[in-house]
Each structure stands twice: as C-alpha cells, then as structure tokens.
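Appendix B. One record, verbatim.
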Amino acid sequence: MLKLHVEGGMEWMAPLTIIFLVNIVLAISCLVKVYAKGIVQERGILLVKELGIFALAFGVLGTVKALFMAFGSLSEMTETLPLNAIMGGLQVAMITALYGLIIFLVSLAFFLGLRYVVKTQI
C-alpha cells in the first residue's frame, strides 16, 4: 500500500488518505451519536457523502495532471518509447483516480448505511 502511495505521488495520495480517515471518523461519530444519544446529525451525514465526492474529484484531478505532464513529455521526445513503458506510465497515472474512486464508494456506503440507521431509529 505504501508503494502505491509513493508511486501515485505523495502530494496527491496523502491528502486523499487524510480525507479518507476524516470521513471514517466522521461516519463513526455520526453512528455513535445516533445509537448512543439518539441525535441525528444531518449535516455530518451529508458531509460524509460530500467528502467522498471531493476525494473522487481530487483523485481525477491528480490523474489528469499526471497525464498532462506525461503527454507533454512524450510529445517532446525524438525517439520512440516501447509501448510497455508508456502503459506503465499510464498505470501509475491512474492510481490517484482509483484511490479517489475507492474513497468515494466507501463514503457512499457509509452515507447509505447512516441514512438507513437514521430511518430505522425514528
């Protein structure tokens, strides 16, 4: 996992990891407040989903930036690179989008789960 963080670029992967951890803590906090105190935090529940959407957008932005830089470098080259080298670069560029998508899906699952718990508690 650490290898993927390094390959994906720490400037993109570290903020995504922080968003992911904050989102997990927020979801658990909302869940505890519903079960323990009967308090429904609508803003917190919506924030779980919105942080997931932000993570997805941030991951896609990281991928687009990496592809932009890679294509710029490729266009300046005079010799031809082997296809497997180009595909390896594209694979590395997709790491941030994949990680953002995973965070979004987990956030959406938390959001839907929290919505279900709130509806059954009322």
